[in-house]
Every structure is written in structure tokens, then in C-alpha cells.
Amino acid sequence: MTQPEPDALLRGWVEQPQRRRNLTSAIKELITKSLIIAELEVRKLRHDPTDLIVRSVQPSLWLLIFGQVFARIREIPTGNLAYLEFMSAGILAQSVLYVAIFTGGMALIWERDLGIVHKFLASPTPRIAMVLGKSIACGVRCLSQVFVIYVLTFLLGVQLNFHPLAILGVLLLVFMGAACFCTFSLIIGCLAKTRERMTGIGQLLTMPLFFASNAIYPVSMMPDWLKFLSHINPLTYQVDALRGTMLLHGSSVYGFGLDCTILLVTLIVLTLICGKLYPRVAM
Fold this sequence. Notes:
Blueprint: H1 6-14, H2 23-42, H3 44-47, H4 50-55, H5 57-70, H6 83-114, H7 116-122, H8 127-155, H9 164-192, H10 195-211, H11 224-231, H12 234-246, H13 256-277
Helix pairs in contact: 2-8, 5-6, 6-8, 6-9, 6-10, 6-12, 8-9, 8-13, 9-10, 9-12, 9-13, 12-13
């Protein structure tokens, strides 16, 4: 009995047809690996749960001090809402903004210094999955801010909308806003290289994003140049949707659908940009 030639076996193994990945399997892999990255990020909260408590101090101070003082000013046109009600949605969005900005890029640079990013980049994990995983984890982290703001504003007498659909809408808006600004922070982290530079840029950007929005005053009060910046600021649309969903007598200027669409498109664009820049972290 003659044995087959080794090269014939090798040719047969090489020429064995391989399955081509279709679009469905690629999307499934992207979602699966994004959720795995998100799970790894969320697990960090078990090692330092006090971070959630520390992050809730700043919005509490804004509501207790700034809100109580400016509620006495009658020149700010807030429609049928008391100023504290008008401001509460903006402070929730502000707390999400601060957590996202100082969580995404800072954590990325820290992981690069520890060599963790290099290991992920050496794996077959898609770069977009790495970005989405961190953004999803940041969205989950920011959900605790909803509980803090709801409890505090309720104690201050703000009339909240406790309908289950309204609460789900608020959670969705907080999640999408956190994902957007976390991805924006990751882009900065890909370019900033050091923690000190990331801290400086983060502080430089958070205040203009906050004050160039409708968080603590309506857009109608702004000068024309600031109105333009407000209309291209994603935080404006997050606050607008939160104000119409979170408050019992609140209303949305642009509409809940348009606000969510702008946040979703912003998230997609920022994720694609960050996916391209992500390998620069290891340089």
C-alpha cells in the first residue's frame, strides 16, 4: 500500500475552502467583543466603588449652592418651569460630561503606561470594539448619577416625571451622552500622550462645552456667536431631551427624536474617528 506524498497532503490542506465572514458575523463579533471590553471596564468599580460617591459631590454642590442662589434671579426666562427645575436637567448632563471626559482619556493613558493597551492592540480585537467597550462601560458608570440627581432634586422640591417610560428615556439619554463624551475623551487621550496634558485639555474643554449649552440658561439669552456654538454642541441636545423627559412639566425645544438622532450620529462619527486613532496610543 503506497502512502500519499507529503506535498499532496499539504496542497490539500492549503486548498481547503475557508468560510468567508459575512456582514452578520462581523457585526456579531463586534458586539460580542465590545460587551467583553465593557464588562472588564465595569468590573473596576468593584475595586473602587467610592469613585461613584466622589463623582456625585460636584453636581450636588451645583444644585445646593448655585441653584439656590440663581433661583432668586427673575431675569432668566425659563418658561413655566422654576429655575431649579430648569437647571436640574442641565446639572445631570453636566455630571455625565465630567465623568465621561475624565474617565475615558485618563484611563486610556494609564493603561498605556501599564502596558495593557499594547496587549489589546496585539490581539485580533477590532479597534472599534475597544472604543465601544469603553464607551458602554462609561455609560453604565454614569447611570448612578441619575439616582443621585433624582434623589437630590426630589428633596429640593423639583417635580419629576416618574413614569416608567420617562425614566427609561432618561437612562437612555444619560447612556448615549456618556458614550459620546467618553469617545471624545478617548480621542483626546490618543493624541495627548501624558496624564498631565490630558488633565489640562479636559479642564479646558469641559467648561466651554458646559457653558456653551442650554444647561443653566436658555439659548435665547445667548449672543449670536454663542448660539452657533450651542447648536453644534451635543450637550445642548442631551439637556433638551432630558428637560422634556425628566421633568413633570418639562418640554423639549428640538424634539426627543431629533435629540437622540444627533447624539447617535455624533457617537457613530466619534467612534469611527477614535477607531482610526486608537493605535496611536502605543506609539
